[in-house]
## 1
Amino acid sequence: MSATSIAGVPARQLAAAADDNLAVHASWAQERLPGARVERDAGLVLVDSGLPCDTFNFVLRSRLEAAAAPARVEGAIDHFRRAGRPFSWWVGPADAPEHLGELLRAAGLEAAESEVAMAADLHALRAEHEPPRGLEIARVRTPAQVRDFARLLAGNWTPPDLEVVRFYEMATPALLSDDAPLWLYVGYVEGTPVATSELAVGGGVAGLYNISTIPSHRRRGIGRALTLRPLVDARAAGLRVAILQASADGLALYEQIGFVATGRITEYKPPGEGAR
C-alpha cells in the first residue's frame, strides 16, 4: 500500500517534488561539465554527460501531452543514438502520459529495473542509532574525499567503472562549491573508506542516493548510519520530507527508519544494456 500523504504533502504533489529532486541529482553537476548537455523544458529533462556511461545520462521528469509524446520519445532516444552513448529513461508516478512505459517499449527500450519510491517525514524519523564502533562519517569537503567517494561507487561494478571516477574528477570543483545542492558523504573505518551516501536538495525535499557499502563491511549497521546522517543534516537545514528509491535489499531498512512506499520507479534502457 502507498501513502496518501507525508508531512501533510499529498502523494501526487510529493511524486512531482521527487521528480524535481531526481532532476537535481541527475543534472546539477552535468550542467557544469565541459562537453555535457542538459536540456529541460515543460515536457522533460534530458541529461547527456558526454561520457559513455549510463550512470550519468538520463531522460526523466516527463510531462508530455499524449499527442506529442511519441515524437518527443523518439527525439530523445535519437539524441543518444546519434551520440553513441548509453542512457536510461526513468518513469515514476507523476510522469505523463500514463502509458509512457508502453511508448518507450514501442520505441525499442526495455524495462531494466523497478524500485519502490519511498518518502519519510523527517520530524518523525526513527533516527536513534548507535553507529558501529570505529565508523567515522565525513561530509565530503576535499578533493581526496571526492576521490574516495568516486572509487567506492565505481567498485559497485565488476570490473570497477572508471568512467564513474572520471565523472567525479571532472565534477570536483562544482561538488565542493558552497552552493552545491549535492551533499556527498563517505564512511571510514580505521581510515579506510567503506561506504557512501548522497543527499540532493531540490523540489523542496531531500533525496537520498548512492547509498552503498563495500561487501566486506556489510551487515554491521554502516549502511544505516550512512542513511541517517544525511537525513539528520537535512532536518537541521529545515527540510521536512525525504525521498528515495529502494531496491528489494534496502526496503526493510528504510521502513524501519520511517519511510513508506509512495509508488514505483522504473528504469528503461536500450536492448542489451540491461540493469547495472
## 2
Amino acid sequence: MYFEVYGTGKPILMIHGNGGSISSFAGNAPYFSEKYQVIIADSRAQGNSHDDKDSLSFEMMADDEVALMDSLRIKSAYVLGWSDGGVVALLMAIRHPERVTKLAVSGANLRPDSNALDPDLWKKQQLIYNASKNKTLKSDKDKNDWKLFLLDWLQPNISLNVIKTIKCPALIIGGDHDLIPVKHTVQISQNIPNSKLWIVPHSGHATLIEHKDDFDECVDEFFEPTHHK
C-alpha cells in the first residue's frame, strides 16, 4: 500500500474515490499539513497500490486503512473520505469505531441503486455492465479496471441500521447537484446519531475541489474548533 505523510500534529487520514490516488487531495493536503499530520494512501488496486486479487470490497479497503494506521502506530485519527473514500471512511467508523476520532465524508452512498446514485449515472453503469459482463479480459489493466467498475456496480451495501451504530461525530457533505442525490446524503446524516449535514451550494461531486477554501476551513473547524477561536 503506497502512502505519503505530510506535516505534524494530530493525524488525519484522507481517502480518495474510485480510480483516484493521493493526487486527489493535491489541493487540500497543503492546508491541512500546516496543522495536522496528513496521511494519504493509494487504495488497493489504484494508483501505486497494486492488488492481484480477483475481487475487491469496501470492507477490505477499510481494513487496509486500519492496517496502515497500525504500521504507523496511530491509535486513532480524524478521517476524511471523498466519494468511494467516503464509503471506506463510514465502514472504518462501523468496523473499527475506536480508530476514528471524527469523520468527514463527502459524496458517499450506501447502496448501488438509482435512489443512491444519480439515475442517469446508474443507467450508464448498467449499459456498461450489460455490454461488458461476458467479455474475456486479457490484460492486467483491463482486469483491474473491471474489478474497480464492479466495486461500484455491486457495492456498497450498508443498511441504515448499521450506520446508526456509528459513535463518533460525523460531518456528512454533498454538493447540491452531486452524483449522489441530496435526499440520500440527508438520509445518511439523519441516521448517524452525532452528525452534522452540509449541502454545498453550486457544487457537483467534487466539493473539495470546486469549493476548496470553504471545504478546507469547514472540515478543519469541525475536526478542531480550537483552531478557529
## 3
Amino acid sequence: MIRNLDMALIRTFVTVADKASMTAAANALHLTQGAVSQQVKRLEDALGSGLFERDRRGLRLTHAGEQLFGKGKRLLALNDEIWAEMAGTPVAGQVRLGVPYDLVGTLLAPVLKTYAETYPQVEISLVCASSPELTAALAAGTIDLAVIEERVGPSAGECLAIDRLVWVGAKGGVARAKRPLPVSIVADTCAFRPAVLAALSEHGLEWRTVFENGNIDATTTTVRSDLAVTTWLASTVPADLDILPFDSGLPPLPNFSINLHLPRLGVGPAAQEFARHIRDGLARRPQAA
C-alpha cells in the first residue's frame, strides 16, 4: 500500500468525478477507459474505501468520494501552482482563442474574466466562428486553442462536457407546429446543421430556412418572434425561450460534446494556462436538466 497520495491517481479521480463518466474522463486524460478504471481502483485500494457507486444515472460519489473530491481539487490546484511558481515561467504574450457563437456568453464570459484578472500581462484575442471553421483555423495556426462542439464520439480534442442538443422555440409559440417547419440556423457551417437536417429527413418532416447568415442575435430574434424554431445545447438556451418537449412532434437530436482542442505542436505558457482556466470553468458549470 502506498503511504503518499499519487498525484496522477488523484487527477484521474477528480476528472472522473467532474465528468461523472469513465468514458468522458478517458477522453479528457487521453487514456483508455480501462486505464482510468484501473487507476481509480488503485486509489480505492490505497485508501481502503470505495469512491464511486453506479446507479441508473451513471456514476455517483460515495461519502468517501465526496470527502476526497473537494480536497483533491484543492490539492491539484496547489500542485499546479507550485510547479508554475518554481518553474519561473512568466505568463505573458498573446492568446488567440476560438469559440462558437453560442458558447461566448454562456461558457466563456466568466472564464475570460478570471483569466484576464489572473494574467493581466496576456493580450486575449477572441475569434468567434462555427466549430468547423475553428477546426480549420487551428490547423492553419491562426488561433492557439479552440473550444469546439462535436457529436459525441472519437475526437482529437479533450472532452470537457457532454450536453443535449434540443429544439428551442418561443414560449407558447406556434412555429413548432407549422409545416413546412420554419427553422433558423446560425450558419450553413454550424456544427449542429448536419445532425438537425438528418433528423428531419429521417422523420420525413418538411422544413424551410428562415434565417441562415452567421448572426446568432438575429437567429435568437426570429425564435423570440415565433417566426421559427432553432436548436441549441440545452445549457445555453436563454431563460425566456422554451426547450421543446419530446411530444412536440419534432425528431429527437443527438448529444454533443464540448471539446478543447490544442495544436499538435503544443502551446506556450499563456495558452496552457488558458486551457486550464477553461477546464476549471467547465468543471464548475451547472449541467442542464
## 4
Amino acid sequence: MHALITNDDGVDSHGLRVLVKAALSNGMEVTVVAPDGERSGSSASLSALESDGRLLVTERALDRGAAAAGLDHLADAVALAADASPALIVFVGVRGAFGPAPDLVLSGINHGPNAGQAVLHSGTVGAGLTAVTHGLPAMAVSCVATDPSHWESSAMVAGRALRWLVSYDGPPFLLNVNVPDLPPERLLGLRPASLATFGAVQARIGERGRGYVTTTFSEVSEDAAPCSDVELLRQGWATATALAAPAASGAVDLAGLAGDADA
C-alpha cells in the first residue's frame, strides 16, 4: 500500500519523520511531500507560489540526525519540499503530481493538538479531508505538546491506528488522532472520542486601535463532555475521531428560498 505523507509544520519537522518511520515500519511505500515552511492554521486552503504555472519543489534528505533520533528507517529517504499548503499538496498528489497516485494520505505528526471544533482551522486535518473528498482514506496525527518529549508514544499510537485504518472495510473517512505527550507507561491507551464543542485554545480580544486589534490566545480551561477528545486527552488517553468530508446538510429546509430570477 502506498501512502502520501504530508504535514503543516513543514518538511523539517521532527513529527513528520516520526510518522514516516511509523508508515515504513508497517510495510508501506511512502511518498513524502511537505510544505517548505510552516503552514499551521491553513485548513484546506489551496495556496502555492507558482512560477510560470509551476509548483515549486525541491528535494530534502530526511535522514539528517536520523540515527541519533532513533529513526534508522529513514536512511536514504528523500522528501519533496513544496512551496504550497498541505491541502494543495494532497489535491495535486492524488492526481499523480509526485508519482503514482497514493492509496491513502497520512498527515502529521503535528506539534500541538488538533482537537475539538478547532479541527476546522487545522492544516493537518485539512490535508486529510482533502484526501477524503477525492475518495481516499486518510489519517491525521497530532501530539498535544508543541515541543513534545515523548515521540515514542505518538509513534506507537500512530502505528496502531494505521494498522486499524488499512484493515477498515467501508467508505473513506479521516481518522483524526491526538496523543498526550506522556511516556508509554503513563499513556492510558487509545479511545474513540467525539469532538469537543470548543478547541484547545481560545482567543481574547483586547485593545482596539487605529489599524490594529490586540488578540491573545490561551488554553481553554472550561469543562468538556466526558467522552470528548479534549476531556479524554486531559485524562491521559490518546483519542481517535472519525471525520467526514464536507457534505450538504439535509437538516435545513430550503424550500422557501426557491424562486424565479425576477422574484
